[in-house]
Structure formats: C-alpha cells, structure tokens
Amino acid sequence: MNARRPEAIDPRGRHSLEAGGLLVPNPSGNASSRLLPLLPGRRASMMQEPVLVLNATYEPINVTAVRRAMVLLLKGVAQAEEVHSAEVHSAAHAHKVPSVIRLLAYRHIPQQSRALSRKNILLRDRNTCQFCGRVFPSSELTLDHVLPRSRGGRSSWENLVACCYRCNNTKGDRTPEEAGLKLARRPRPFTLHTSRQLMRLIGHRDERWRKYLFY
Ligand SMILES: [Zn+2]
Fold first, then answer.
1. Residue 138 is part of a domain; what is its CATH number?
2. Stretch among 30-44, 103-117, 190-204 having the lowest mean pLDDT
3. Judgement on whether residues 83 and 166 belong to the same structural domain of the protein
4. 19 and 102 both lie in a single domain
5. Cα-to-centroid distance, 127 and ligand 1 (Å)
C-alpha cells in the first residue's frame, strides 16, 4: 500500500497540499493521486474548500479539499453525505460541491497521527501565545521549545508551543520557570480529541459538519 503525501490545512481553513496534515486515507491504492481532468480551472478557490471525510463507519478521519473529494466521488470509492448548493460542471454533468463525504469501504487507520508542523501547533494553540495569552496572526508567532533544545528539549507536540516574539525573547534559552513565565496550559500531545478539535476549527463555518463531529 502506498501512503499518499499527507495533506495539510492552515488556520484560515484553506487547504493545501503541503506535508504536515492528517494521515490521508488512500482508499483506492496508488492510482488515486491522479486528478481526473474534468474540473475546469475556474472556481479554483472552491476546489480548495475543506471537505470532511468520514470512514465507512461515519467516524471522521480526515479533512481534504473539494478537488480531491470530487475525485473520490467520481471514482466511486466515496459518496457525498452532505453537499453545498453550489455546483461544479464537467463536460457532461453538474455536480453538487461536497461538504462531507464517506468512504464506502472501511479504511483501517493505523494511527490517528498528525504530522508535527508549525501550522498544526499554531492551530492547536489557536494562534495564542502560550505565555502572554494574546492572539496573534501566524506571521507574528514563532514556536517555542518549552524545555530549550540546548537542554535536551525535543521538537514534539508536548514541548512546542505558539509564542510571540516578545515572549520568545524574554524566555531565551531558559525554562518558563527560570524566565518567570507561566504556560497558559500544558501543551497537549496529538490525540483523537485534538484531531476532532482541529476538524471543528477547520469546519466551523460549515454547519453540515456538526453532527459528525458531535458539537
Ligand atoms: Zn507572548
């Protein structure tokens, strides 16, 4: 089985194909990474809108882009559970833009793992500096190693937090205690809960996702 490159989601809810996202299921083997050439270039932005992907059991497992969701639908490996009113047109057909799709065959997800990335840490911490508690645009945040790297601190979900430059300077190469700073909360490892939470954040504008994410 070929693992597809993980797809990532940034905090604005836009979808990108960079590494660092949820583990992406590849229900039909290695041929499915080819996009079918039926979707026109226009409405390109809609093609990047997030789509919630459910396992055959309705368990939310991933977020992907409309473009890839359409491919899964057209290949017959998934069906649309929720759709937008908007349509996209191919040469012969009009297709409702999917909001939630469900894989038709159960897909074993070996581990609900999510790649460690700056983007994902900022998303987890909701763009909030974990020392001063203020919210910043992503460009004004950095990642802080709570236990500094020079002291053996690892780059992990548990040791990285969103941090503004000011607090980062204040902290320097010290632990929060040494620098007189207090963490807003203990950085949490990636869990299924985190996964659901991130999906909710991504899908917060789409009411159709609610019943699948239990909120
Ligand atoms: Zn700060």
1. 1.10.30.50
2. 30-44
3. no
4. yes
5. 11
State the Cα–Cα distance between residues 2 and 22, nearest whole angstrom.
16
Report the separation in Å between the CA atom of 115 and the middle of ligand 1, taken as the mean of its atom positions. 25
Mean pLDDT of 145-171: 94
Distance of CA 142 from the midpoint of ligand 1 (Å): 10
Quick check: is 96 in a domain? yes
Question: What is the distance in A from the centroid of ligand 1 to the CA of 188?
Answer: 19
Rounded percentage of the chain residues whose pLDDT exceeds 90? 43
Distance 136 CA to ligand 1 centre (A): 9
Distance 130 CA to ligand 1 centre (A): 7
- pLDDT 10s digits, 180-202: 999 998 898 767 677 777 788 77
CA of 179 to the centre of ligand 1 (A): 13
Our CA angle for 203, 207, 212, nearest 5°, is: 75
What are 103's strand-pairing partners?
Answer: 78
Q: Identify whether 188 is part of a domain.
A: no
170 in Cβ contact with 129 (< 8 Å): no
C-alpha–C-alpha distance, residues 134 and 165, integer Å:
12
- Measured in Å, residue 137 CA sits from the centre of ligand 1 at 12
Q: Measure 176 CA to ligand 1 centroid, in angstroms.
A: 12
What contacts 128, CB < 8 A, 6 or more positions away?
A: 134, 135, 136, 162, 184
Residue 59 to residue 81: CA distance in whole angstroms: 13
